[in-house]
Structures are given as structure tokens and as C-alpha cells.
Design goal:
alpha+beta
Length: 294
């Protein structure tokens, strides 16, 4: 691997960690000024990794590969004659702060205020981080883009179920950052309570090894039927041995909880709906890989 690319990868990791640590946007401005997210995990995947083509089978043929994202972006901006060369997907995990996780543990119907604000203010920060990483790379002479900011990456409704044609979780899986649990969320070395982001860059950064072959490797329920605590945590029955019922989940979060949070707006709830996260807190995978799967 080119020494310059190895050095650039180190610089990217350090830049992301520093930005998360120092940015005013990563603070609960309306609560106590404490961090929304703690130190992130960062991983890299070859933009032409065959796994991205496999996603068209396991996720759906609508799911875009990194190369397709670049091609669509270039076509949209009139630069389709300037195809990217080497391509790397940079992915990161933004772990939710411990105080926020703690505040959400006793909740049994809707989320805590801190969790709700993490959903909205935290995702605003995630978008800012994507712009920062693109700028960081561009300043160093590398073409880069944020797939999540493109007009053609969107949420689709297929058979009544919403899904994304650019799944940040699947990019993180490809970048060696975690595997999927019963909730469909990604279980990482810092747990399942997090938000995820990614950027593509025209560079051949060293891929992060994937220390797993099974996409459910870190979930005890899929390994031997043990655990299942997240099933008990779900207030609406959207989790079961059959997995995650997205339709039921979304109906609870975006309809029932929307009015629930509206009645509590004076407490600091924000956004079109409050989020939930009950299945991501007070569970063995909240902040680590469950011991049974290490």
C-alpha cells in the first residue's frame, strides 16, 4: 500500500476525531452543553469491493454502489467525462454519549429528551461532519462527495416498507465497523447506540479489515438464540423472533410518538417525531459487542 495513502488515512481519522471532539455543533446547546457524541469509529472500504454489488441482491437492486453514486453525481453536474479513478468509502460511527444512553434506559414508551435531541441536533451535526470531511479532502487535492447529500440518494417505499438506496449501515458493515442485530441496527465495538455517516473519495486508502464473515456475528440472538432483550424493550411489538417489523416500528415512532412528544414540547422535545431508541438502550449491545460474541 502506498505510504502516502496510508498517511492520508491516518490524517482523515485524526481529522474526524478532532472535529467530533471540538465542534460546537456536537453539543447539547439547549440542555447543558455536553457532547452529543463521543469519540467516533472510522473505517475504510474499497469503493469497488464486490460486497457492494452483493448488496443489490441482499438489500435490493435499487441500492447504489459507490461507483454508481460517483457516476450519477458526475452526470448530474455535467462531468460524466471525468470518471473517478481509485475510490474509497470512508465510514464513521458516532457513538451516543453515556448520559444520553443512561437517560433512555428507564423509558418504556417514548425516548428521553436527550435521545430525541440526539436524533435531530445530532443528525444535523452528522451532516456538518460530512461537509467537513469533503472539504478536508478537497483542500488536499482529492475529489470527494457525500452520498447522503446527493439528490438521487433517498428513502424509497417498497411493498409498504421504507428503505434507502444508500444505507449508511451497510457502508459501515463493508468498512469493518460492525454487524447487524435483530433490530437491523449495526452492533459495533462501541455498541448499537449511534449514528452513521460516510463520504466517498477518489483515492486508494487502505481498507479496514472486516473481522467477521457472518453479517449477524455480533448478535447473540442470531448466534445461539440467547438474549432477545431488545424484543422485550420494544413498546409496540415491532421486534420478534422474525426480526424487525419496519412498518409497525415506523407507525409507532412517527405517528403515535409524534403526538406523545408534541404534548411534551415544553420539556425540550424537537423534530417531526421524537425518535425512539428503546431497543438500543438497556440492552447488552448498548455500548459494546456482547461478551458472548467476542
Amino acid at each position: 500500500m502506498d505510504a502516502a495513502m496510508t498517511e492520508l488515512a491516518k490524517e482523515v481519522v485524526e481529522a474526524i476525531k478532532t472535529f467530533v471532539a471540538e465542534s460546537p455543533g456536537n453539543r447539547f446547546a439547549a440542555i447543558d452543553g455536553s457532547p452529543i457524541f463521543v469519540e467516533p469509529l472510522v473505517g475504510f472500504a474499497d469503493g469497488d469491493d464486490p460486497l457492494f454489488r452483493q448488496y443489490k441482491e441482499v438489500v435490493g437492486d435499487f441500492h447504489l454502489t459507490p461507483r454508481e453514486v460517483v457516476q450519477m453525481h458526475l452526470k448530474e453536474t455535467g462531468g460524466d467525462h471525468e470518471e473517478f479513478g481509485p475510490l474509497t468509502a470512508i465510514s464513521w460511527i458516532l457513538p451516543v454519549a453515556e448520559e444520553t444512553r443512561r437517560s433512555n434506559r428507564p423509558m418504556n414508551y417514548g425516548p428521553s429528551v436527550r435521545w430525541n435531541q440526539t436524533r435531530w441536533a445530532g443528525e444535523d451535526f452528522n451532516k456538518t461532519l460530512k461537509k467537513y470531511v469533503v472539504g478536508f479532502l478537497t483542500e488536499r487535492g482529492y475529489r470527494a462527495l457525500s452520498p447522503g447529500a446527493m439528490s438521487f440518494t433517498k428513502t424509497l417505499v417498497i411493498n409498504g416498507v421504507r428503505t434507502s438506496n444508500w444505507s449508511e449501515r451497510h457502508i459501515a458493515y463493508a468498512a469493518g465497523l460492525g454487524t447487524f442485530g435483530l433490530t437491523d441496527a449495526l452492533i459495533t465495538s462501541k455498541g448499537v447506540a449511534h449514528r452513521v455517516g460516510s463520504v466517498l473519495v477518489e483515492a486508494s486508502l487502505p481498507p479496514t479489515p472486516r473481522p467477521y464473515q457472518d453479517h449477524h456475528a455480533y448478535c447473540p440472538y442470531f448466534q445461539d438464540g440467547s438474549c432477545g432483550v431488545c424484543i422485550e424493550r420494544c413498546p409496540t411489538g415491532a421486534l420478534s423472533a422474525r426480526g424487525h417489523d419496519k412498518i409497525r416500528c415506523h407507525a409507532h415512532v412517527e405517528q403515535k410518538l409524534a403526538s406523545w412528544a408534541q404534548d411534551r414540547k415544553s420539556e425540550g422535545y424537537m423534530g417531526a417525531y421524537p425518535g425512539c431508541g428503546l431497543c438500543m438502550t438497556n440492552v447488552p449491545c448498548e455500548a459494546e459487542i456482547p461478551p458472548a460474541c467476542r
